[in-house]
Write a structure and sequence with these properties.
The chain is an alpha/beta fold. 38% of the residues lie in helices and 30% in strands. The protein has helices at residues 32-42, 52-57, 63-72, 86-94, 104-108, 110-120, 149-157, 180-189, 204-212, 222-225, 231-237, and strands spanning 2-10, 13-18, 21-29, 46-51, 76-80, 99-102, 125-132, 135-138, 143-148, 163-168, 194-198, 217-220. Helix 4 (86-94) links the parallel strand 5 and strand 6 (99-102). The radius of gyration is 16 Å and the shape is globular. 46% of the residues are buried.
């Protein structure tokens, strides 16, 4: 199982929110790059970086943090938050992101995302499917679209998307367990999907349960920063090399 630590950034610092609410911001580290180095030293090979300032302002903000992480580690970084234009996309890739997570723009401007799939290839694009009450949420989870999850996924699977990061917003930051049934349903519908579960992971047992359920990958953050997961034990059980 692919284990992907998450670093969420506001004002250049490593933070976490609860259910995407910016009013719940909690700072865990002043230097996200140091956190990234620590993750690499532990044995992680992939990192999910979210520019929360970018998600809120609708353009990439914390590009310098991304540049430092990709320059100072060998982690495979997927970056999301505020990527709305061709210029944003080019900047993020030039800054060293091997993969880019697209969420809101995939709802509001699907033709642009289709162009990116053609230009950069589906292996470099992660479809962000952020779900609340069965509907896709956008713009830092502040707005609900009218799109239901499975028609949204269908439209992009037909375009060649294989990497999907699905977050159950109601679970995010709650440390009450992931939406395993939802992820199993997605995998049943799209068995070739490289699904990344996100939201709710509170302990190693949650990750074990996702693995048993056949979920290929998981993103988790708050459980790390709150000290709920022994990362050495986790890596020993799920080696990433």
């Amino acid at each position: 199982m692919l284990l992907i630590p998450a670093i969420d950034i506001i004002n250049g610092r490593c933070v976490r929110l609860t259910k995407g609410d910016y009013a719940t911001e909690k700072v865990y580290a002043d230097d996200p790059v140091e956190v990234a180095r620590q993750m690499e030293a532990l044995g992680f090979r992939r990192l999910h970086v979210v520019d929360l300032d970018g998600a809120r302002s609708k353009h990439v903000v914390n590009l310098d943090v991304l540049q430092r992480i990709t320059r100072e580690t060998h982690l495979v970084v997927d970056f999301g938050g505020g990527v709305k234009t061709d210029e944003d996309m080019q900047k993020v890739i030039e800054a060293g992101a091997q993969m880019v997570t697209v969420g809101s723009i995939a709802v509001t401007d699907p033709e642009r995302v289709h162009d990116w799939l053609q230009k950069f290839g589906p292996e470099r694009i992660v479809l962000g499917a952020d779900v609340k009450n069965g509907l896709i949420s956008i713009n830092g989870w502040k707005e609900e679209s009218t799109l239901k999850l499975f028609p949204f996924l269908d439209s992009y699977m037909q375009q060649g998307i294989r990497h999907v990061l699905c977050t159950d917003i109601g679970k995010d930051g709650m440390l009450q367990g992931p939406a395993t049934v939802l992820y199993q349903t997605i995998m049943q519908a799209y068995p070739d999907c490289l699904l990344i579960a996100s939201g709710g992971v509170s302990c190693i047992e949650d990750i074990r349960a996702l693995n048993i359920a056949g979920i290929p990958a998981v993103v988790f953050g708050k459980a790390i920063y709150e000290g709920r997961i022994n990362l050495q034990e986790l890596i020993a059980e799920f080696p990433q090399d």
